Amino acid sequence: MRILVTGADGFVGGHLAHGLEATGHDVVRSVYARPAREGEVRVDLALPSDLARLPPHVDAVVHAAGNVDPLRSARVMHRANVLATKHLLAWAGREGCQHFVHFSSVAVYGMLALGEARSEQTARLGRGLGLPYMRTKARAEQLVEHSGVPYTLLRPPAVLGAGDTVVSRGFVDALGPGGLPMLPGASTARRVSLSCVEGLVDIVRLLLARGPLYAPLHAVDFELTFGELASAYARALGRPFHYAPTGWARAYQLRNEVGLAWILASSRFGQHYLCSRLVSDLGYRSRRTLDSAIQSGLSSLQGANQGLFYGC
User: What pTM was estimated for this model as a whole?
Assistant: First the structure.
């Protein structure tokens, strides 16, 4: 199958492009943040004229390009996450694309992303609510749904693996002598869900074989308690740890440190997403282990090479 993967210069998009190629697909890579290399095309998806650089006759589009930086302005987020999706959908429609796999996020739930047992039927936020990232991801989903292009929406939670700069970075910073910060009301029993970046490749492969679902799907590999996750990171880092009470004022100061903010929110509220549709609709069972995903994330932060596995 001939597949366009956007955002191939990013964390998730790079793994998707490499993994789909490794399993026999003909992959066209689109990049933006750096010059194109062999087999790539550099495209600003927010400029309709730029899309003429994309090669024709693709069977599917895997749209992983976008901006996730919470420090970016609403204008930048809108351009990267909404306009780019709008123009790519128009191009995909003209090209007769048979499946548009859109990488969205659990952020479309807004503040309802915090909590436990969230399903794909959890209310998506409106245009005027939530942070710019949340609003633009929700708006992009609406564009996909109304485009007329066959589609599936993938909503991963936080993603582990080589290149992870959120959860792994957060635990590296938090597991120190001062203790793992915990807000009032936090609990080690709060449940969290996580994706593995190699698991996302497996899910996309299954989707491409299955065909469009015309619906959102949680992309989850691991479900566990926050305490179990913290213990797994402590073992991987070889660090003893304890929990340390942290006030809301301190949490506000840390709001732009994405990894620590994820830890504080997860231990206080949980970030747990049901994935029954992943099993019922795709028959997906993760082949990955939490320890290997954590080790990949930690090793990449330390500059080590990773032995990635994308085989059948």
Answer: 0.94
